Inverse folding.
């Protein structure tokens, strides 16, 4: 039986990274050997089970202790600050980037209009192994060591195609990462195997609530203790793919007065979902999750309700939105740079005007600042160093400058920028959203 599980693990892992291995970028950039090494490493993953829609989560194996990915700390910690991706990270980033530009970008306008991502794109995104990156190897994960930087690079690359579709693709990975980081042995063995199978469940991390000036550390959703578990009441807003989710991780205020995270299955009585589209990231099919007298067992609480776990969840979610903003900002900068060179006015390209050239230069400067702050925060996560301050800096840059990147992109196209003929109006809306959203994603 053990040999059968290993064989299934190898097959699923190789299939999930098949698109990466077949990328033309590997031979062009000389990274074929690194790709083969990664695929060889992935094939050592642990046991997995595949289930169907409307699935019942059951433990495929029992763990004596929770499985955790080791961080790049101790002797592996670099002595100098270095944001240069290694060969494997570049290979993953470039493969995801090709997928984003080839498949996500052409579908973005229609997905934004209908507030949904095509199912075929979600399936193809799952084949990239997005939900495997944060899962420990013994449970079938794709990498040996935990790396927030790798996830940031992949999220950035996806967002160059479209932020809304990227958020939809990454939503299940937020749940698998949360359970990997803070789940106990039983929670991991019950819920993680489907996320490393070829039938990845739709899932969502629900933190945000429909309140002005929402504070994620003062939640309206409440969990009260009852015999054998908790009863949760509250409303969550802008939850990606909530309508088709097969699993939720929901934030609620604990009886102790601090927030905590609960694993909630959609089939539980008292859960309803309503459409909740915003002005941005519309392709993520955001919805409102309403919980009324929802009973969950004691075993559904992640991390034993530790405040540190919830604080890390908020920070890592904000870092994920920073990564998406970097990718979208890069898409806007690339588009605008080509437009102002080709657009003629008064007998010359508009880029010859100082005001235009300076605006595009400022866009590049602001984007690079956000990128560096995001990478630095991710690097500290990987080195097991305190990272909340660095995430706060990146988030502040996003909130203050992210929307300005989109606004400048619209301005550089003049009246064209305000129409749906060009994608900059969508990127403007998405960048505004990224600066205020909480939860939904995790690195």
């Amino acid at each position: 039986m053990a040999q059968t599980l290993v064989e299934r693990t190898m097959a699923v892992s190789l299939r999930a990274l098949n698109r990466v291995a077949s990328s033309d970028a590997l031979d062009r950039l000389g990274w074929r050997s690194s790709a083969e090494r990664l695929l060889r490493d992935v094939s050592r993953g642990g046991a997995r089970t595949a289930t169907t829609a409307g699935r019942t989560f059951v433990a495929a194996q029992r763990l004596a202790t929770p499985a955790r990915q080791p961080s790049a700390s101790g002797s592996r910690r670099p002595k100098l600050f270095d944001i240069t991706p290694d060969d494997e990270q570049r290979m993953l980033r470039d493969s995801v980037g090709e997928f984003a530009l080839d498949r996500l970008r052409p579908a973005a306008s229609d997905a934004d209009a209908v507030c949904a991502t095509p199912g075929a794109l979600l399936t193809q995104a799952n084949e990239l192994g997005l939900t495997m990156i944060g899962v420990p190897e013994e449970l079938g994960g794709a990498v040996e060591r935990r790396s927030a930087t790798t996830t940031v690079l992949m999220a950035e690359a996806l967002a160059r195609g479209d932020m809304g579709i990227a958020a939809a693709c990454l939503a299940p990975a937020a749940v698998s990462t949360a359970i990997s980081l803070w789940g106990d042995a039983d929670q991991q063995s019950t819920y993680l195997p489907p996320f490393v199978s070829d039938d990845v469940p739709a899932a969502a991390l629900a933190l945000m609530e429909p309140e002005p000036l929402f504070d994620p550390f003062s939640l309206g959703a409440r969990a009260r203790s009852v015999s054998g578990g908790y009863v949760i009441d509250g409303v969550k807003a802008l939850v990606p793919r909530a309508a088709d989710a097969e699993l939720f991780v929901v934030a609620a205020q604990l009886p102790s007065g601090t927030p905590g995270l609960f694993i909630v299955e959609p089939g539980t009585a008292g859960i309803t979902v309503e459409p909740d589209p915003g002005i941005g990231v519309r392709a993520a099919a955001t919805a409102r999750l309403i919980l009324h007298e929802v009973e969950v067992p004691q075993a559904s609480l992640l991390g034993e309700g530790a405040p540190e776990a919830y604080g890390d969840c908020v920070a890592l979610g904000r870092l994920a939105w920073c990564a998406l903003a970097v990718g979208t900002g890069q898409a806007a900068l690339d588009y605008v740079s080509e437009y102002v060179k080709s657009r003629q006015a008064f007998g010359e390209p508009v880029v010859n005007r100082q005001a235009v050239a300076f605006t595009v230069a400022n866009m590049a400067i602001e984007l690079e600042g956000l990128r560096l702050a995001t990478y630095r925060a991710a690097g500290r996560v990987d080195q097991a160093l305190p990272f909340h301050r660095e995430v706060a800096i990146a988030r502040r840059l996003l909130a203050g400058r992210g929307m300005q990147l989109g606004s400048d992109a619209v301005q550089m196209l003049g009246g064209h920028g305000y129409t749906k003929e060009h994608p900059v109006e969508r990127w403007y809306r998405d960048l505004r959203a990224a600066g205020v959203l909480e939860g939904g994603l995790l690195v």
About this structure: Strands lie at 203-206, 222-226, 229-239, 247-253, 259-264, 271-275, 287-297, 344-345, 348-349. The chain has 13 helices and nine strands. Residues 209 and 236 are 5 Å apart (CA to CA). The first strand starts at residue 203 and ends at 206.
